[in-house]
Design goal:
Shape: elongated
InterPro entries: GAF-like_dom_sf (IPR029016), HTH_MetabolicPath_Reg (IPR050707), Tscrpt_reg_IclR_C (IPR014757), Tscrpt_reg_IclR_N (IPR005471), WH-like_DNA-bd_sf (IPR036388), WH_DNA-bd_sf (IPR036390)
Order of helices and strands: HHHEEHHEEEHHHEEEH
Number of strands: 8
Structural class: alpha+beta
CATH superfamily of the largest domain: GAF domain
Helix content: 40-55%
Radius of gyration: 21 Å
CATH topology of the largest domain: Beta-Lactamase
Number of helices: 9
GO molecular function: DNA binding; DNA-binding transcription factor activity
Largest sheet: 6 strands, antiparallel
Strand order of the largest sheet: 5-4-3-8-7-6
Keywords: DNA-binding, Transcription, Transcription regulation
CATH class of the largest domain: Alpha Beta
Distance between the termini: 22 Å
Protein name: Transcriptional regulator, IclR family
Length: about 260
């Protein structure tokens, strides 16, 4: 199923965005909020906030406190999300291997997939080291500057890759981002011959990453190992070896 382009977004998207803004406001505040505070934190009109809150409360997703007069989410959203994740056809089986890859590489491991012209992070297993690359599941990243994006672009045929790069904007995310379509195409094609892809501060300054793509049931995913430059610079070959082995194992064991 194709996703709508920005010009084709249905009218209900605004309502959905405001609903998500409300939950993210609670996430940021981590405390009960009055209707006024919630509307301000979510940056939506108070009347609109009241209508959404009334709907959420009637469905059991919010409960009210009398002293102080405030609102807070119930555990229902968590339970719904947990039940959905338990039935995920890929993540449930892949996560233990991603955790093992994190433990052996000692760096943050990310699983991602293409969503339109961007990358969406499906799973993030953060490094246990105090200085590490941090990200969140659901983060959206550019295709051209992220390690996972370069791996996903590397899964395309050369003609399709060059056409995509020629047609899409390639803004500089950092001073190291490759913004020339020909140079980026050459970088990706050379990386494909190696069997893995790299970014050196191209998406986040001072963060290096190595990635590889894999296909499972005709779906293309990519996995990356990311960490601070001062560690990744020396360990990148070892991380690449671990990553390629993990992708190969996942691809063979998860295909039906």
């Amino acid at each position: 199923m194709s996703l709508p382009t920005p010009a084709q977004k249905p009218a209900t998207v605004v309502g959905i965005e405001r609903l998500l803004d409300i939950f993210e406001a609670f996430q940021l505040s981590q405390r009960p909020l009055s209707l006024t505070d919630l509307a301000e934190a979510a940056n939506i009109p108070k009347s609109t906030c009241h209508a959404i809150v009334a709907t959420l409360s009637s469905r059991g997703y919010l409960y009210s406190l009398s002293r102080p007069r405030a609102l807070y989410p119930t555990k229902r959203m968590y339970d719904v999300a947990l039940d959905i994740l338990k039935k995920d056809p890929f993540l449930e089986r892949a996560t233990p291997l991603l955790e093992r890859l994190r433990d052996t590489s000692r760096e943050t491991v990310i699983l991602g997939k293409r969503q339109g012209d961007s990358v969406v992070y499906l799973q993030v297993i953060e490094s246990l080291q105090s200085i590490r690359y941090s990200a969140k599941t659901g983060d959206i990243k550019p295709m051209h500057s992220s390690s996972i994006g370069k791996a996903l672009l590397g899964s395309l045929k050369e003609t399709e890759l060059r056409h995509w790069l020629a047609e899409k904007p390639l803004p500089a995310i950092t001073s190291s981002t490759i913004t020339d379509p020909e140079k980026l195409a050459d970088d990706i094609l050379q990386s494909r011959q190696l069997g893995y892809f790299q970014t050196r501060g191209e998406n986040v300054s001072d963060v290096w990453a190595v990635s590889a793509f894999l296909k499972v049931d005709k779906e293309t995913f990519a996995i990356a190992i990311a960490g601070p430059k001062h560690r990744m610079e020396a360990s990148l070959p070892e991380c690449a070896h671990l990553l390629v082995a993990t992708c190969s194992f996942l691809s063979h064991t998860l295909c039906r």
